[in-house]
Write a structure and sequence with these properties.
The complex is a heterodimer of chains A (about 325) and B (about 250). Chain A has eleven helices and 14 strands. Chain A has about 325 residues and is an alpha/beta fold. In chain A, the strands form three sheets. A six-stranded mixed sheet of chain A has the order 6-7-8-3-9-10, sandwiched between helices. In chain A, helix 3 crosses helix 4 and helix 4 crosses helix 5. Chain A starts with a strand and ends in a 12-residue tail after the last helix. Helix content of chain B is about 85%, strand content about 0%. The radius of gyration of chain B is 20 Å and the shape is elongated. Chain B is mostly helical and about 250 residues long.
């Protein structure tokens, strides 16, 4: 195992009664990784996170956090984990500062360091101006930030965030994303979300979970490669015959689309240049040419919808 | 760690108006009972003075006061213990404790001590009433001490029962009514014991009231103390098991 491996999950399986919620999931998280966990509702994202944070016991499998076995030494392992569940676990009757003080003590931060830990966490989450207000009176966005502050106050090696941007306004979402990116520099981060662009915006690794199984696991760079274009969309005022287009070097097939547009498929190299040259030479009056990219959404839908739901009923996440 | 959890529990209790309301109402009612007992005693005193070895203040004022206090507290405890764990479960704050480096035992005992210390405050306020009599008369301090010990143990058992009921459910009201039901049952269970001479000694042993009455009489019996300690351990143990079950398959 590499030295900076923060989380190591091996053959994780979890049943709820007879329902299989997580099926043989294995993955690693290294320092500096921001791992995006995608999946439809009820795919097992939250269950996986709850198992890694020790909120649920796995039915089978093994979890190492920072080299410490979570099941053998839960107390030591949990010190290295910060967890923000779907609903921030805040006490409404406490002020932000009191609450973070309690969290810091729960995580056994030495008395002398508590003040500094709290102020750092509040600073990072932009909570300074509300530090003396009751959490119950704060807006959802601020409560979410308090939840994140709670997860990082003890500077854990791994921060696990379950849908951290749900219910926030667009500006708050941007701030939280920036915060997560910054946290990713020092901590390992696992975050779950439904929002696909969010993954591309902040993660460097993606995993898609479907019906409890990992169906996709790759780095964002690898994902980008999967997303690269294999077709162009061209629009002509004097559209040529598709066969004529197929003659252009590099083009494998041309497929006419409504509105005078043509989808041009290619295999190896991008034929744009040759196509433009031909268009000028033959007066096809080309006025639009754009590479067609697959989106993460397409990959996601391919992976999660290809297989019809089996006999297993959907389980809540 | 236990004390961190206990301190927060106590703090949250005092941040809610419920705790203050309970303290005020209980204090008011007990003070009224106390005064009426004193009144009674003053009425009887001339005749008692003539009798050799007549019962004193401890028997005629303090014992009835404590006996009534136990009933009042039986009604009040479920109100304060109901939300201890059920509300954390409902508001999803339990996962804060579960993901922190704290064991289930620490969580349960911390919560328990937090609520118990609230009741100890109440108990101190109650103890001040008979102690105020010291200003004007002599008291059988031994009897007062066993009475206080009995009430403390009784309360500790009440709170443990309430905590367990609160661990069972997500609805505070359900926790309250079940706690109340169970406590009342344990209170009156010896009625069956009374009717059937020796046959239901078990029921008599199970009754919380029986063990409390002996202590009120000034008899310090280790069986009675052991009974309460057993009840407390049992319910705390069950609460820990119950929380652990949250993590396991179900």
């Amino acid at each position: 195992m590499q030295k900076d491996m923060l989380v190591h999950v091996e053959h994780l399986t979890r049943y709820y009664g007879h329902t299989l919620a997580v099926d043989d999931v294995s993955f690693d998280l290294a320092k500096g990784d921001v791992l995006g966990f995608l999946g439809p509702n009820g795919a097992g994202k939250t269950t996986t996170m709850q198992v890694i944070t020790g909120n649920l016991a796995p039915s089978a499998g093994r979890i190492d956090v920072h080299g410490i076995d979570l099941l053998d030494e839960p107390k030591r392992a949990k010190r290295e984990i910060g967890y923000l569940p779907e609903q921030p676990p805040v006490y409404r009757e406490l002020t932000v500062e009191e609450y973070l003080h309690y969290c810091a003590k729960l995580h056994r931060i030495a008395r002398g360091h508590i003040g500094k830990a709290i102020s750092t966490a509040m600073e990072r989450c932009g909570l300074n101006e509300v530090s003396h207000r009751l959490i119950g009176n704060l807006s959802k966005g601020y409560q979410q930030r308090v939840g994140i502050a709670q997860a990082i106050v003890h500077t854990p090696a791994v921060v696990i965030l379950d849908e951290p941007t749900v219910g926030l306004d667009p500006i708050q979402i941007r701030e939280i994303r920036a915060l997560i990116r910054e946290l990713g520099k020092e901590h390992g981060i696992i975050l779950s979300t439904h929002i696909l662009p969010e993954v591309q915006a902040i993660c460097n690794r993606v995993q898609i979970i479907h019906q409890g199984r990992l169906v996709f696991s790759d780095s964002i760079a690898g994902l980008e490669r999967r997303l690269t274009a294999t077709s162009l969309i061209a629009a002509f005022h004097a559209a040529p015959d598709p066969d004529a287009l197929a003659q252009v070097p590099g083009v494998s097939r041309a497929e006419p689309l409504p509105g005078g547009r043509v989808r041009i498929h290619f295999t190896a190299t991008d034929p744009s240049e040759a196509l433009i040259a031909q268009a000028v030479a033959n007066r096809w009056r080309l006025y639009e040419l754009s590479p067609e990219r697959r989106t993460l959404e397409q990959i996601f839908i391919e992976l999660t919808c290809s297989e019809q739901p089996s006999d297993q009923p959907e389980e809540t996440a | 760690m236990i004390f961190t959890i206990a301190a927060r529990e106590l703090r949250s209790l005092f941040l809610s108006p419920l705790a203050w309301a309970v303290l005020a109402v209980v204090q008011f009612i007990l003070a009224y009972i106390f005064l009426s007992q004193i009144d009674n005693y003053l009425m009887w005193q001339p005749r008692l003075a003539a009798v050799e070895g007549a019962p004193g203040v401890a028997d005629l004022v303090i014992a009835p006061l404590f006996a009534d206090a136990a009933i009042v507290l039986l009604l009040v405890t479920p109100l304060l213990t109901m939300r201890v764990l059920s509300e954390e479960r409902r508001n999803r704050t339990l996962s804060l404790l579960f993901s922190a480096p704290v064991s289930m035992t620490e969580i349960v005992i911390g919560k328990y001590l937090g609520v118990l210390s609230f009741f100890l405050v109440l108990l101190v306020l109650l103890a001040l009433m008979p102690l105020s009599l010291l200003a004007g008369t002599e008291l059988d301090l031994g009897k007062l001490a066993t009475g206080l010990l009995g009430l403390t143990l009784l309360l500790a058992a009440f709170v443990a029962t309430g905590l367990f009921m609160s661990a069972l459910t997500e609805q505070p009201t359900i926790a309250a009514i079940s706690t109340f039901g169970l406590l009342l049952l344990l209170w009156i269970i010896d009625w069956a014991g009374n009717s059937e001479n020796q046959a239901s000694g078990l029921f008599a042993y199970l009754s919380m009231l029986r063990h409390y009455e002996t202590l009120l009489k000034g008899l310090f019996n280790s069986t009675d103390v052991a009974y309460y300690l057993l009840v407390i351990t049992l319910f705390l143990g069950l609460s820990i098991r119950r929380l652990d079950a949250d993590r396991l398959s179900h």
